[in-house]
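Lecture notes, part 5. Sequence design as translation. It can be helpful to think of inverse folding as translation between two languages: the language of shapes and the language of residues. The source text, in structure tokens, appears below.
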């Protein structure tokens, strides 16, 4: 199948970045979000990032205009009916994602391929919420989507070879390197990275080291661009908690158990950059 028209559900941190990736690669894309203000915020962010590229001479003003011109927005899933691929980037909540997939299945044309940007939830569970399990695949972009080079595809036992081939080929046109992972909790990246991030929260909680000692040490010792607590703020503490909960539920491995400090901070509404306060404070 030739992929031409793309849809994205959820225009938050990841969704807006994915919309940018799609439009930059020359595709028409429609972004759907149901929360007031999120589409405007997402578009503003894209415009600002592209303006930065124009300033650096990496993009012309005409190219920026053309990219922005390929992006449409909508507030209903019905707006996605004739898309060839729909990527879901709603919050990390399996119940919500299953509901969205069931609705999209009723709305979209039979050929539409459904992707999920889930960090680690069961893609099989999303597939069975539809009647097109062969056309459901994990499409895990990384944060920030326009910058990070990896596209981690997640193949379930129901995903057809045709879907994998189509998405792999199309993924290459986005300028990403594609890997295919099995549908196990956290796939490759989240499964490996989560114990490290949770370990940093536990270290802080136990008073073994301060926030700055932890982050500075990991930046200078391992050459990570951000320390682990900065990364959790960047991901969003609510998202990190959902990831830990689902991985712990599936594996029962202590390394995935959510630290109490993380739970309490989410309860307090300290979700990181998106709320202006997490392990750090943001203006
Ligand atoms: N944050 C990260 O670093 C990161 C990295 C990779 C993958 N992910 C995954 O990407 C997904 C999105 O994460 P995020 O960080 O962008 O979350 P976010 O909270 O920033 O954005 C989610 C968006 O979905 C919208 N939304 C909620 N319900 C909706 C509905 N019914 N219909 C349409 N839109 C709806 C919200 O209004 C919001 O704009 C999650 O599955 C997450 O695990 C996140």
């Amino acid at each position: 199948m030739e992929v031409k028209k793309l849809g994205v559900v959820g225009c938050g941190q990841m969704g807006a970045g994915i919309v940018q990736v799609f439009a930059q690669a020359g595709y028409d894309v429609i972004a759907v979000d149901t929360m007031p203000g999120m589409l405007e915020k997402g578009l503003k962010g894209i415009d600002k990032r592209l303006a930065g590229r124009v300033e650096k001479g990496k993009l012309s003003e005409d190219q920026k205009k053309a990219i922005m011109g390929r992006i449409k927005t909508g507030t209903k899933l019905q707006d996605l009916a004739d898309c060839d691929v729909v990527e879901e980037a709603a919050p990390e909540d399996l119940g919500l994602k299953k509901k969205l997939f069931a609705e999209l299945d009723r709305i979209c044309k039979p050929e539409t391929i459904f992707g999920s940007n889930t960090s680690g939830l069961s893609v099989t569970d999303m597939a069975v919420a539809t009647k097109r399990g062969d056309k459901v695949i994990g499409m895990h972009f990384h944060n920030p989507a326009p910058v990070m080079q990896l596209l981690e595809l997640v193949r379930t036992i129901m995903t057809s070879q045709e879907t994998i081939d189509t998405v792999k080929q199309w993924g290459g046109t986005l300028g990403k390197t594609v890997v295919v992972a099995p549908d196990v909790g956290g796939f490759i990246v989240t499964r490996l990275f989560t114990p490290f991030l949770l370990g940093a929260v536990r270290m802080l909680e136990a008073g073994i080291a301060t926030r700055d000692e932890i982050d500075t040490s990991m930046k200078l010792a391992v050459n990570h661009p951000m320390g682990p607590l900065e990364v959790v703020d960047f991901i969003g503490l609510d998202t990190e908690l959902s990831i830990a909960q689902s991985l712990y539920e599936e594996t029962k491995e202590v390394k995935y158990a959510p630290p109490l400090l993380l739970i309490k901070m989410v309860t307090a509404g300290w979700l990181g950059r998106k709320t202006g306060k997490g392990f750090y404070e943001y203006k």
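The translated text above is only one of many valid answers, since several sequences can fold into similar shapes. The radius of gyration is 19 Å.
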